[in-house]
Amino acid sequence: MVLKKTKTYISKESLRRPWNILKEYRVIRILEKFANYAFGHLWLPTHFAVLQFLIFSAFNILRHRKENDRITNFILCAGFAGYYLFWTLALEFAGRLEMEEKQIINSWKLVKFKTPQEKNFLRRFRRACRPFKFGSSVFFKVERLSILKFYLTLVHGTVRALVAIKNARS
After folding, report:
1. Beta-carbon neighbour count of residue 100 at 10 Å?
2. Residue 157, CA atoms < 13 Å, CB-side half-sphere
3. Model confidence over 37-53: pLDDT tens digits?
């Protein structure tokens, strides 16, 4: 088995043929459709629920830490850390898959062709490939920037809740 390294890509030379690329890419697209059909509708409600729990936990930890007993504070801190880590990793994983697929599609420019027809075919096929996205097709798609939006919403929601309660008590 001879592995060929071109720039940052390492692969077996016999696999870097247009017809093999076409078959493998279609298999990945079928898996993506299955995953989005099975779990795509769960991304938005899960995102909403996790954000609401994290904002609630952060607000209670910051505002009522003296009023709550130690066990309640521990449960809130542990829940915050667990959900925060879980959802951060889920968004990071989905965003990295999208980024990696874009790099893979760009790497097809380095494929060696036997005929000009193969080159023309793969060039057209590459243009037709849409990037991989987790989530529902219309409402919520996880991208590379989704994790930053998640952080921003968490901080913004927590600060708004603290300011709103402080102004209501005044």
Report:
1. 11
2. 18
3. 888 888 888 999 999 99
